[in-house]
Amino acid sequence: MDPISPVKTSTMAKPVSYVTGSELLTLKEGSNVAIVDVRDDERSYDGHIAGSLHFASDTFNDRVPDLLQTAKAQGKDTLVFHCALSQVRGPTCARRFADYLAEAKEDAGIKNVMVLERGYNGWEASGKPVCHCSGTNCKGGC
Ligand SMILES: [Zn+2]
């Protein structure tokens, strides 16, 4: 069972769009993209996308404000969410974050909330760069 049940999406929220792995690699060239890994335990043994942040889905609702602060502190304006397959947890957390942004009174400067198609498994299967460090916030150089 997935630990998060789908949340009702506010009509005010920006739509969540999808990005392919190849498109994400291109987006990553810019420094304004944060990759948000919402897998749970899998991150610790499967590796992760180089440079990704870890906000596990089981505690995601409580950590949405932290994620926004982290993104702002790093000057990000695009967040790309993923889980293992990006079928349930990734899109659910992306919508949760988009709803939070819609309800926030301040303009956080986040322009895009996206989901990585096929998730981490698709990313790894297509031979894209993965990392096995133990950091919650991966520095991406490993
Ligand atoms: Zn890493």
TrEMBL record:
It comes from Helianthus annuus (Common sunflower). The gene is ACR21. It comes from the Eukaryota. Its EC number is 1.20.4.1. One of its GO terms (cellular component) is nucleus. It catalyses: [glutaredoxin]-dithiol + arsenate + glutathione + H(+) = glutathionyl-S-S-[glutaredoxin] + arsenite + H2O. GO terms for molecular function: arsenate reductase (glutaredoxin) activity; protein tyrosine phosphatase activity. The lineage of its organism: Eukaryota, Viridiplantae, Streptophyta, Embryophyta, Tracheophyta. Transmembrane segments: none annotated. PANTHER family: ARSENICAL-RESISTANCE PROTEIN 2-RELATED (PTHR10828:SF38), M-PHASE INDUCER PHOSPHATASE DUAL SPECIFICITY PHOSPHATASE CDC25 (PTHR10828). This is arsenate reductase (glutathione/glutaredoxin). Keywords: Hydrolase, Oxidoreductase. Residues 29-132 form the Rhodanese domain. Signal peptide: none annotated. Gene3D superfamilies: Rhodanese-like domain.
